[in-house]
Amino acid sequence: GYNYKIDLTNRYSDYSTQSYHMSSVRKYIQYIKKKENLKINKKLFEALSVKATRRHDDGTIITEHDYLLIMNEFRLFEQQDIFGELCSIVFVLFATTNLRIGEILNLERVCIQEGSKDESFTAEVAYRTKMSGGEYVYERKSSKVIELIERALNITSPLIDEYAKDILTNFVFVSPTRGRSRSRLKRIDFNN
């Protein structure tokens, strides 16, 4: 499995950035817990507590055991409905790539660049960052990442067909919601 804590410390040297990312994951899990009225193991929240992001003597934040514990919770959530699988995909992308949660949630349906797949099935993914000024950033991603994005595209395809006139049909991570007068799409948001 992937070792999220090592990845976090390799990506970000300062405590506040590491803490921010752990906080995002906690918000994400709390959102799922609230939305689906799930009982989530307390050890998961302990592993993701802000104090858990402080450097220890070995320079790590979250153990592989803790990562597997988190993934087991997501696997249970996946079995409940399609939304659970989408949330699991978001978490794995967040834990295994250099993409921020907002960059993942804002991936567009055409993010995998046509013709960019190579013989090892890696491909270029286009996304926008906070720092790119609205311009796309192109980055080659592993075959596993491409598979996850393609799976999310397949999961949400029926929604895109059903809500063809909705302005959010260009995003990967969407779900239906009931508006005042009609049903519509919304981008998955873990802050509500």
**What's the assembly state of these chains?**
single chain
Shape: globular
- The overall pLDDT average reads 76
Contiguous low-pLDDT stretches (5 residues minimum) are 49-60
Helix count from the secondary structure assignment = 7
How is the biggest beta sheet arranged?
A: 2 strands, antiparallel
Radius of gyration: 17 Å
Ends: how far apart? 30 Å
**Strands, count:** 4
**Hey, roughly how much beta strand do the residues contain?**
5-15%
Secondary structure class reads mainly alpha
Strand line-up of the largest beta sheet: 1-2
* SSE pattern: HHHHHHEEHEE
Helix percentage range: 40-55%
Can you put this structure into words, describing what you see?
The protein has helices spanning 4-11, 15-36, 42-47, 64-78, 82-96, 101-105, 143-162; strands at 123-128, 136-141, 174-178, 183-187. Helix 4 (64-78) packs antiparallel against helix 5 (82-96) and helix 5 (82-96) packs antiparallel against helix 7 (143-162). Mean pLDDT is 76; it is low at 49-60. The protein has seven helices and four strands. The strands form two sheets. It has a two-stranded antiparallel sheet. It is mainly alpha-helical and 192 residues long.
Question: Would you kindly provide a brief summary of this structure?
Answer:
This protein is mainly alpha-helical and 192 residues long.
